[in-house]
Design goal:
CATH superfamily: Vaccinia Virus protein VP39
Strand order of the largest sheet: 3-2-1-4-5-7-6
Order of helices and strands: HHHEHEHEEHEHHEE
Radius of gyration: 16 Å
Distance between the termini: 25 Å
CATH architecture: 3-Layer(aba) Sandwich
Structural class: alpha/beta
Length: 205
């Protein structure tokens, strides 16, 4: 997983500069994910976002759950630099962790009630299955995982192009989530007609 992590650090060193200006055009379902979760969990105490990037979801989570302590984890220092400014109004209860998700984050006796992963799992190749397994260790019993990510495409050329951008789109994420969690929400959406499909999954441990 370290080679993949090094590659992603380099990728985001460049992309962090214009990430927020461009990703709205194809990271579908990301804005709706927090609202979807908010309707299915009451007052979580501890929340973890894996691959928090520039902090857009952290701000939404802090607003949706004003009593929660929130941790945002990312392996890119460049992305976290941008997140730090966004979370400043919530700095008393939102912390940033600069590390890969290669081991549990929850401290003894303090598991997370909610783990959020937005468009990160499809970029962790290899290792996405290890990340999902770690989520089970970091979640309390009955805790919730909320994921939105690329799912699949029927176009070979597009799959190859997304591979150049570190994204794997072969339906692998949903299959693993189905194995590990009890689905509460399981929806497939379409991007630009049917150029690709993305998945929204909310599951209980």
């Amino acid at each position: 997983m370290s080679r993949n992590a090094d590659s992603l650090r380099g990728y985001y060193r460049w992309h962090a500069k214009f990430y927020d200006l461009t990703r709205w055009a194809f990271l579908f379902g990301r804005r709706d994910l927090i609202a979807t979760v908010a309707g299915r969990i009451e007052s979580p105490d501890r929340i973890l976002e894996i691959g928090c990037g520039t902090g857009q979801n952290l701000v939404a989570l802090a607003a949706a759950f004003p009593g929660a302590r929130i941790a945002g984890l990312d392996l890119s220092a460049d992305m976290l630099d941008r997140a730090r400014a966004k979370i400043a109004p919530f700095a008393d209860r939102v912390e940033l962790l600069h590390r890969p998700y290669d081991g549990p984050v929850a401290e003894e006796g303090e598991p997370f009630d909610l783990i959020v992963i937005s468009y990160a799992l499809s970029m962790i190749n290899p290792g996405y299955d290890e990340v999902i397994a770690l989520c089970r260790r970091d979640l309390r019993e009955g805790g919730i995982i909320a994921v939105v990510d690329f799912h699949e495409t029927r176009w070979t050329w597009f799959r190859k192009w997304m591979g150049v951008n570190h994204v794997r789109m072969e339906g692998q994420i949903l299959a693993r989530l189905d194995d590990g969690f009890e689905a509460v929400v399981r929806e497939i959406g379409r991007g630009y007609g049917d150029l690709w499909r993305y998945v929204t999954f909310v599951g209980r441990s």
